[in-house]
Amino acid sequence: MGFPLFMIEGKDMETLAFQGLVGLSVSMYLWLLAAGLTIVFGVLGVLNFAHGSLFMLGAYFAFTYYGLWGVNFWLAIAMSLLSVGVVGYFMERFFLRHIYHMDHAFQLLLTFGFILIFDDAVKMIWGGVAKIPPMPSFFEGTVSVVGRPFPVYNLFIIGAGVAVAIVVWLLFEKTWWGKMVRASASDREMASAIGINIPRLFTGVFAFGAMLAALGGALGTPVRVVAPGIGSAMIIQAFIITVIGGLGNLKGAFVGALIVGTVSAYGILLFPVFELFLIFLIMAVVLMVKPQGLFGG
Amino acid sequence: MKDIIRTESLGKYFGEMAAVHEVNLRLQEGLFTSVIGPNGAGKTTLINLLSGYMLPDRGKIYFREKEITRLGPDKRVKLGISRSFQVMNIFPRMTVFQNILLPVLSRLNKTSSAFSSLQSQKEAVGEAEKILGEVWLQEEKDFPAGELSHGDQRLLELGIAVATNPQVCFLDEPSSGMNPIERIKVLELVKKLASERKTTFIIVEHDMDIVFSLSDWIVVMNRGEVLAEGKPGEIRENQEVRDIYLGEEI
Amino acid sequence: MKTRLAVLILLFLLALLPFYAGKYALYVAIHILLLSIFSLGFNLLFGYTGLLSFGQAGFYAVGAYGCGKILLAYPSLLAGIVGGVLLAGAVSLLLGILCIRHTRIYFSMLTLSFGMMIFSLAWKWRDMTGGDDGLVGIPRAPLEVPGLFKINMAAMENYYYVVLGFAVLAIYLFHRIIHSPMGLAMQGIRDSETRTACIGISVQKYRLVAFTIAGLYAGLAGALLPPLESTVTPPLAHWSHSAEPVLATLLGGIYAFSGPIVGSVLFYLLKDIIVRFTEYWLICLGIIVVILVMGFRGGVVGIFVREGSRR
Amino acid sequence: MREKRKISRRAFLKTAVAGIGGMTLALNGGGAAAQEKSPAKPKPAKKVLGVDVIKVGGQGVISGAHADYGWQIQAGATLAIEEINAKGGILGSKLELKFMDEELKPAVAVKNARYLATDWGAHLLFGVDSSGSAMAVGPILPELDRICVFDHASTHRLTEELVYGKGIKQIFRIAAPVYQESNLAALIFKEFPNIKRWAGIHCDYEYGYSTWALFQDTLKKYRPDVEFVSIAWAPFWTMDFSSHISAVMAANPDAIHATPWAGEGVMLLRQALMMGVFDKIQAWFQCMGGSVDLLEGISNEVAAGKFKDKLWATARYIHNYPDTPENKKFVESFRKRWNRFPNYSAENAYSTIYVFKAALEKARSLKTSDLIKALEGLKIMTPAGERYFRPEDHQAIYAVPGGRVVKDPNYPLPILGDLKIFSPQAYYRNPPFEPLKMGK
């Protein structure tokens, strides 16, 4: 009773299409995580290993506000974004700011240290037992896609992903703040020369990235459990996405998320045995062929 | 005299901007040559191309009539081409002595020996000591290079460049960031090394007085192209050169 | 001279360990020696060549699985260990060719993904690796050279001496390498890649050599594990295991020869002791890492010694 | 070179010394500890067992998404020890517990076992959540010369390969292994003629593989007509199951057999609800679904009847079965002590301590060999019912039912109703064992 490596046979178009849609929702969720990571790297030049931990914090805060204090769901999300934004502010202001000049290795290590700290910190505050937040009623129910039930929630996630993509694009392309950020990203000396307050700007950018991570964590709470370590479980995927797309490149991250989400969705359907392996393989191959990532360099 | 370096319509382009364009050079062995020109004239790019630090988009490079256009920097060093950098580029965490020892070991093809101690490399150690002397750094030999004064780091940079015992050596602003007295000292040292070591130096330098007093041959670049070349006298008389340097007293 | 004396004292104390230390202490000592070998190899890449690898656990696992498979098939300690090391060396050479073209973050990410590929292989290739249950019941085979000698390894004391022997050998060779011309070339690459290329040294060649040696050391540490634990499981290849030599080395100091060794001692004892008092040992470790990166990149050795703290 | 050498000399000297310091200090510490705490040489005392305190070393996962299991083990064992000590201990010796986190990492479990046995001086070992950890700890028990009662890890290989096959007699298991999730499920669902198409959503590791394989083998025996139409494997730490669910639903199964446990089980079931799975299928068998943390996690959904009584589950013990005084007393005192319901891992640990008690009183000695003799063939009444330690493979035999997950007014959290009870012999694998084939 072994399972064939490749199980395309007997998979009709509807099935493939539906799986694709599911994959899309997975992708969009991953994109929420990858976006902040990418922005922070693109502007500050720091690959934030602890980005997943900020995602986890977002989930914990959302759980506390919505699940424990019974705050309105949307308000709870907003509050958790702010809370994590503040955490991000302190992280940048008192730690990262002092290591921009350092070798990438040390930046990676510092943020790695924060993973260890955050994972245990939440365990101290919320306990080691997984928390199970209630599901807001308006997320229940399904819509029929190619004759199969597709969850409203997953539709919402797809919407949220697209919305974030648009907001981020507008923010960086159309606003004065965005222009300043891009200027400083491309040339710090020049930017500070024309009077941009780089340190404050960077703190802002990092806090913004942290809030994006928190958004992912918070929006996950209705269907996921909240437990220590969910962050470090996500971060590797986020890394793969950003590296595939080209570190620091938002378009790349978006495409990377689409690739990873879709591949894992179809992988489960078609290559049940090697799905885990597949994603790392893709990343390695991309790096081999295009060292700077699909959109990088 | 015969060419040591020759280029055919050499070109390097960054998007629209032509950093180096249609450069046909003949650098003759034994001539102390300076490359001058206003900022952004393409001097550093030219050196990067000739030393293999960058690969050209167009054209060919010959070393003693052997084509080296696509050769990597390490291969070119083996042929006898060496360089120094405008932005300080030494081994900051190694001692001054090791900074010199490494290129010497490289020239003697000893760097692949994994288990012999450095002290046991008698020949290399001897040579390194000698070079340290030539660049006036004996006292500082055991300092970590990163802790040297700017001037001494410049000397070290020079030392590293000559330690591979090159036939032709490109120096990119060897005296940048130094006061006038130091400059003269360094450039006279270069001149001395040139005569003692039978090395052909090609230097990029801003201080016109020094350039015109030291050089046997001067190449003037502007906007990526060679504007003029010739003996100091000829260049001084050249109207175009005067125009691009207008104001400055040549 | 003084150095020699200190080393001799250290060796003497280690050689007599079984006579004054308890069973568990001996077990801990073996693990510390393994971590030291693992970290030394890692630091040849990081501290001496400037490449931060997050995939060393992959090679550690290759060494461990290799040794385990051999011992299960043919119970001879030497065969197992040597086989494991060679296998790890071969794999690291192969992957090295693909990795050394990259530097900085891209190198770290590529090694991370290769390490995780090995992890998922260990997890999925169950006929070969036994899946997540791993290879079970690996014998601590006798140390024998057919026709020459045969020493029983049942007692952990005996195995301790085998590990100690390999560790001392590995550390000695490492000392030779980093003080050799090749070692200097690697440090050159770390300090300035461009400069090294422009004095006629092939950067990629020595990166590859460093990568392979690091793989061999990881493989040795890994190959020495199965006879001790009698089990090999996939988590050995997981990136979180790759982080251990990173932390140990950072703790000890990346610019000093002895950094990774001191770091391994501290790291292991620190964890072992903190764990007994609190389940929150990670946060302590995290704080230590942050402090080290912010203030003491030379690590503990660097604090002791001026040389270490040089940037 | 000279100056430089001096520097690095000093570097090496100091650090070397530091090294020795650290090493010897710690090792001596450990050594001393080992000497005085070594249970090998009993202190001169008139105690039957020769010691004032019997040291019990346990471990389980008390961190991460599965932390509740370790907590439950700890809670159950602690309760039993408090009860026993209150009654004057075992043969006059009190019990002392030390509990460690195995982090679901075999290497850590082995290290803990070694620490507990050789440094802390444990006389008896128990615990371990993950199969990998169990398979790693088992083989070193002879070297440690300790028995270990495994009360959660469920791989059949532990007893069939290591005890029955390799003859490692120090291993005992008090918890029902994967038979519970596979064979029992098969016995229940052979009675449902309309359920012909089965799909699986399983853990992408040994537990999932063997459960799914065994389930198929057994069900096929009784029901040649059933098909196994699709399978999705979920790696550890899967948090978004939507791809898995849609992948298996694509084959229009009548029922689904699933292993993801603890927090992952909760996520799987909630996401299945979201994707309208329970409108389409006739039944869902959630292995270990009778576990308290899972029941708590889906309590609201059960109360709201969202699963349409199609959710079936089992566990290695369920707080509402059997209806015996032992069980009532256990559940009550557990709730009084911890103000929560006991999980199967809690009952297993609680009973483990009482198994130790029975064995010690029978053997009147702490020697491993005596304890093994005492335990083989031991019959003992526990909250989960009477357990019998099969001499061949040291597996405890006892009956645990499966049933529908339902809400009961008498309980704050869901229970298993409509219980299907079989004699253990019916669904346990019995010696001689031949290894089971797992294509995957």
Give structural notes.
The complex is a heterotetramer of chains A (297), B (250), C (311) and D (440). Chain A has 297 residues and is an all-alpha fold. Chain A is 71% helix and 3% strand. Chain A has helices spanning 13-44, 51-68, 73-94, 104-126, 152-174, 176-186, 188-193, 198-220, 230-245, 250-270, 275-289; strands at residues 142-145, 148-151. Chain A has a two-stranded antiparallel ribbon. In chain A, helix 1 (13-44) packs antiparallel against helix 10 and helix 2 packs across helix 9. The radius of gyration of chain A is 20 Å and the shape is globular. Mean pLDDT of chain A is 87; it is low at 1-6. Helices cover 37% and strands 24% of the residues of chain B. Chain B contains 9 helices and 11 strands. In chain B, the strands form 2 sheets. Chain B has a 6-stranded mixed β-sheet, with helices on both faces. In chain B, helix 3 (96-107) crosses helix 4 (122-134), helix 3 (96-107) runs parallel beside helix 5 and helix 4 crosses helix 5 (150-163). Chain B is globular and about 55 Å long. The two termini of chain B are 28 Å apart. The model of chain B has no long low-confidence stretch (mean pLDDT 86). Chain C has one domain. In chain C, 74% of the residues lie in helices and 3% in strands. Chain C has 16 helices and 4 strands. Chain D has 440 residues and is of the alpha/beta class. In chain D, the strands form 3 sheets. In chain D, strands 7-6-8-9-10-14-15 form a 7-stranded mixed β-sheet, sandwiched between helices. In chain D, helix 6 links the parallel strand 4 (148-150) and strand 5 (171-173). Chains C and D meet through helix 1, helix 2, helix 13, helix 15 and helix 16 of C and helix 1, helix 3, helix 4 and helix 6 of D.
Question: Briefly, what is this?
Answer:
The complex is a heterotetramer of chains A (297), B (250), C (311) and D (440). Chain B has helices at residues 43-51, 73-79, 96-107, 122-134, 150-163, 180-197, 208-214, 232-237, 239-244; strands spanning 3-14, 17-23, 26-28, 33-36, 58-63, 66-67, 81-83, 168-172, 200-204, 217-222, 225-230.
Overall form of chain A: globular
Rg for CA atoms of chain A: 20 Å
Mean residue pLDDT of chain A: 87
Name the pair of protein chains with the most residues at their interface, and give those residue counts: C-D, 58 and 60 residues
Question: Which sequence of SSEs, written as H and E, runs from N to C of chain B?
Answer: EEEEHEEHEHHHEHEHEEHH
What summary fits the major beta sheet of chain A?
2 strands, antiparallel
Query: What is the strand tally of chain B?
Result: 11
